[in-house]
Amino acid sequence: MKTQIVLYDGFDELDAVAPYEVLLAASQRGAPFEVELAHLEGPREVTASHGLVVRATRALAEQLDLLIVPGGRWGDRSSPIGARVEAERGALPAAIGRLHAGGTTIASVCTGAMLLATAGLTRGRSATTHQVAREDLRASGALLVDARVVDDGDLITAGGVTSGLDLALWLVEREAGADIARQVGRQLEYERRGPIWRRPKG
Question: What is the CATH number of domain 2-198?
Answer without folding.
Answer: 3.40.50.880
